[in-house]
Input
Amino acid sequence: MPPSSPPLIFSPTRRRLAQHRAARLQASPEAARFLVEDMSEDVQERLAFLRHPVARALIVANGPSSLEAALAAGGAEVTVARPAIGFAEELPYPFAGFDLIASLGTLDTVNDLPGALVHMRQALAPGGLVVASFVGAGSLPTLRAAVLAADGDRPASRIHPQVDVRAGAQLLQRAGLADPVADSRHLDVAYRSLLQLVADLRAQSATNVLADPGPLLGRSALQRAKDAFARAGSDGRTVERFEILTLSGWRR
Output
């Protein structure tokens, strides 16, 4: 009996369009990039703690990060793969033999996350390390509450399903990675308006790419969302939370 296909939770077309839009927005020096930079700095700290030598590294990300320069400065040969321009995370990689594969902010919108982790493991050299970071469970609680208030009695699917630490650890084990570790940390960002938050999400390819995204908010519903978001804050600022889930493991 052939294996069943993973459920289509995210639209590959919508995902690609969101990534292309983010790539255009990142051309501005003022574009938000705090998610990928937080993930990049975390990977560097982990490598320093582990004292893991990296001769060949692969970075999977939608845009540039400080991790690329840091690894190159340490003498590593760095390959960069951009899902926004066609790199397929849910298929076997066209290259292998890496001491490190770092995935920064892309795996939260793949339909076959277990398969993507398997392909990462297979692209590692023996003794190689995977570090995959992405937005996880508990993220965007204020936005979630605001759109629920906007939808009223008939809520629509607008926020992505999110992976928590326990599920992440299980995924690492299924992928066959040794010494699996899943952990989460939060990043709080203050906003003056709901539209400012949405702009930051667009710039970082973190908007709705669900296969069934729900109807667009009408003018009155959008105003209810704005009002709910503002009421959740104080002194003209509302704090939104991003939970960064990081999965790591080794190829033995």
User: Anything to note?
Assistant: Helices lie at 12-25, 34-50, 66-73, 113-122, 141-151, 165-174, 194-203, 219-231. Strands lie at 56-61, 77-81, 98-104, 124-135, 178-191, 238-250.
